[in-house]
Amino acid sequence: MQYQDILKEIQEELLDFSSLGNVTTTIPELAKIDPNKFGIHLTTIEAKDFGIGDSQERFSIQSISKALTVALAFSYLDEKVWKRVGVEPSGTAFNSLVQLEYEKGIPRNPFINSGAIVIADMLVSCLANPKEDFLQFIRKISGSNTIDYNIAVAQSEKDNGFRNAALANFLKSFGNIDNNVDDVLDFYFHQCSIEMNCQELAHSFFFFANEGETKDGNKILTKSQVKRLNALMQTCGFYDESGEFTYKVGLPGKSGIGGGIVALYPKVFVVATWSPKLNKKGNSELGMHALEVLTTKTGMSVF
After folding, report:
1. What are the b/e assignments for 26-54, b being 16+ CB within 10 Å?
2. How far apart are the first and last CA of the chain?
3. Residue 2 CA from chain centroid, whole number
4. What is the pLDDT of residue 167?
5. Cα Rg of the chain (Å, integer)
6. 87-143: pLDDT as tens digits
7. Which residues are annotated as a binding site?
8. pTM tops 0.85, yes or no
9. Residue positions in the annotated binding site for substrate?
10. E strand or H helix at 139, and its extent?
11. Which of 107, 142, 240, 270 could form a disulfide with 202 if both were Cys (CB 3.0 to 4.6 A apart)?
C-alpha cells in the first residue's frame, strides 16, 4: 500500500472541502490556535511512518487522553474499572449532568467527562505521583521523552471548568469519587492539556493496534483488554457522533476538542489527524472527512 501517495491525495482533496467548523471557545487558551492547521500521520504495524502537512506540530490532545488514562487504569485494576464506569454509548452531550443523576452517579462510559473524571480518581489512587507517573507512561508508549503538559492550557481549563467541577462534586455526592475533588480535577485538567504531534499520537496508540504491545515492545495490556477498549472506542469514542464516525470511517478511535483524532485498524495501522475547526458535536470536521477518505481509498475498515 502506497500510504504516502494516499496521504498526498487526501491533502489535495481536502483543498476543495468547504469547512464550516470553528475552533473551540470553551477553553480560551485553545481559541488562540490557527484554525487552518492540518496534519495527518500514519504508522503501520511494521512501524513505518508516513506524514504530511502539520503532522510534526504539537497540539493539546484533550479528550484523546481519556483512551490512555482508561488503558492505564485497566492495566492496574482490570475488570474492577467497570464497577464504577459503564460501557454504553451516552446518547447525550459529553458533559451532561442530567444523565449522571438519572443513573445514580455511574457514568455511561469512560469517554464522557464524568466517566473520565472517575478514571482520573482511580489513577490518583493507584499512582504514587499521579501527574508525573502518567506523563512517564505517555512518554513510554509514545517513545518521546519531550512530551509534556501545557500548563497554560491546564490553568485555562481550571479557570473555566465549572461544569467539570459540578460533575466531580456530583460524582462525590454519589460516592463515586474516593479522593479530594480538587486533586482529581487537577489531574484531569493536566491529562487533557498534554501536547503531542500527530506522529507521537499515532505511536502512543500503537499498542491498541498491536494486541497490547508498544512499538518498542513494551506490554501495556493483554490482547483481551485491548479488544474491549477498541470496542469502546468504536461505540463511544466520538461522543454522540460515534455512530456517524463508525458509519463513515469504520475504525475505532478517539477525538478531542483540540482538533485531534486518532483511529486504528488492528494489526494494520494507526492514523492521527489534526485540524482545529470543530463541528457542532465537538469533533474535528476536516479530520473526520480525511479519515473517511482514507478508509474509502484503502478499502480498509473493521467492517
Report:
1. ebebbeebebebbbbbbbbbeeeebbbbb
2. 19
3. 27
4. 96
5. 18
6. 999 877 677 788 888 889 999 999 999 999 999 999 999 999 999 999 999 999 999
7. 63, 113, 157, 164, 188, 239
8. yes
9. 63, 113, 157, 164, 188, 239
10. helix 130-142
11. 270
